[in-house]
Predict the structure.
Amino acid sequence: MPSPFTLPQGMLLGCATAATQIEGGDTTHNWYDWCQKGHIKDGSSCLRANDHYRLYREDAQLMRDMGLEVYRMGIEFSRIMPERDRFDHEAMEHYKDELRLLHEYGIRPLVTLHHFSNPMWFERMGGFEHPESVQLFVRYARFVVEQLGDLCCEYVTINEPNVYAVNGYLFGEWPPGKKSLFKTLSVMKNMARAHVAAYEVIHAVRKTLGFAGCTKVGFANNYQVFAPARTTNLFDRLSARFFDRGFQGAITDAMVWGRFSFPLGLGVRKKGDYCDYLGINYYTRSAVRGTRHLTLPEVPVNELGWELYPEGIGMLCERYYKRYGKPVWITENGTCDAKDRFRTRYIYDHLKVLSTLDVPVQRYYHWTLTDNFEWAEGESARFGLVQVDYETQKRTVRQSGRFYSAIIRNKAVTEKMCGEYLPQAVSITEALPQPE
Ligand code: BGC
């Protein structure tokens, strides 16, 4: 049966979101274009999403009522730079207003500058395939950070360059729909360069503004546990290591240390130290069989078929803390569960693993606050602690959302909470819907 536990000392908890997935109303970025071209499985469009650009005050109140301490939010690149040589000051004012509100409610913001979507002018020139993308992204980052001044100390430069590159340039399932390993690697490389350059500029700008003290800059990659499907098969074991290096190992070395080694490069470029925390987005474990990537048989999975593997979050925190020595921020962790049948247990299991580690895990941002536009899956994949009726935009806090609020309040899962929220669930498998 679930037993009580206490959260690590000083850990702050909140939620993470991304501009394109919640804001709605923007027709100037590549994801709007991708939706218009009919690539979304359920036919929905990010033009609607959660209408958060209009409803941000209500959403901030919701976060305050749920007791969030921290909030990771995105700024939409295309809203700030709708054209190559124009910054939109009105859009900037909008985000400043949102940030002021968060401060008023005692919620500390972490701002993501790039979360998968590009302005159309940037996409048309080749996005991060183009070497000039580095300088253009840095120009955008500088403007935002200068404008936000003391409203925000903490930044994620780029979210999941590994997922962005693989889905858009290897599998062709996301814009721009290409399928080339060479392009995938070159996009990853340019994104890592963009991070390194932005890291330096953000620190320099904040120093000039007199806010150097509290500044924290990092990135958030998607990290998975890659396991050999057949543990005794040498090929599977080597292949799992290869996947691990290609998807997450090499790019993390490049973004943390400026070291571009195989398969991103052959040597050292701009060696240094380019992150103040290590952002881990953790969802699942992947099995590798030969050159194929799959899910192990008979493991618990969510509605998208992703294995529910709470131990993995601990394994990755330990591994990367050992390698880079940076405090860990769980910048995303959550699951797709439309009926909220196992999300409560999922949160319990992942936080419990974190509570046992000998690693400074300083933040936990649950993915995500409200159901939102889940990229190629559209509106049907529901990751929210809060349920959304897209027709009316009504928000309703789920049981898992109430559980999460209670955790934040108590900085623990108490005996009483186990009885109230996890009465029957002995394990995550039992919490899952049973086959009919
Ligand atoms: C992304 C989010 C996404 C989530 C769930 C992460 O890879 O950063 O934008 O919604 O996973 O798929």
User: Anything to note?
Assistant: The mean pLDDT is 96. The CA atoms of residues 70 and 207 lie 23 Å apart.
